[in-house]
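Hi all, long-time lurker, first post. I run a small reading group and we've been trying to get comfortable going from sequence to structure in the token notation. Rather than ask abstract questions, I figured I'd post a concrete chain and ask someone more experienced to write out its structure so we can walk through it together at our next meeting. Sequence below, copied exactly:
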Amino acid sequence: MWRRALVAGLAMLAAPLAAQSPSAPPTPQPLPRVALDTTAGRIVIEADTLHAPVTAGNFLKYVDGRRLDGVVFYRVVKAADRFGFVQFGTNGDPKRVLPPIRHEPTTQTGLHHVEGAISVARFAPGTASGDFTISVGDQRPSLDADPAKPGDNLGYAAFGRVVEGMDTIVAILDQPVSPTATIRGSFRGEVPATIVTIRTARRIAAPAPPVVPATPPS
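-- Answer (accepted) --
Happy to help. Here is the structure in token form:
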């Protein structure tokens, strides 16, 4: 008799447990964001530390060390209306530059040079440090890695995107350039006549993820 009562009691306890829905997956943590306060307007960048941890982490080191405060947008490459890229960063300043980082090609990270993508400029793979480009328009054919191409086909390392202030980026791209100015003999015809300065680069709080209502048990 007592055995039947025990079995019945266990069955009653198991029924509510079986009716409960499975545990919800953990809420993904928001990616870090950085606000660039520039003389042309505010730009907010989301650094993808999940898919490009080395490159995004390098950018955040420059931000946290305040090494981007006072740097300028020193290069604009405008191939067509709303198509090209702008470049900013340490520009070889030895007081600002950190050691170069390992290259993370887009074939590894899955990120691409679409409109608003930010990547790190380089010479040979593994030489990138503190200079960054922001794409205007889809730059995947030219800046993404492409194993089918000969020679150095690893492209630039994309690591995030502009989430606010793309109009400011376009305005920088549209600035007139000097026909004669260069940066140490390079970038003739790509040096803006009016300099845009980054006053400060600081991390900001990412927006909270949306709350998904719990599914009631059936």
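A couple of things your group might point at:
DSSP finds five helices and eight strands in the chain.
Residues 13-19 have pLDDT under 50 and may be disordered.
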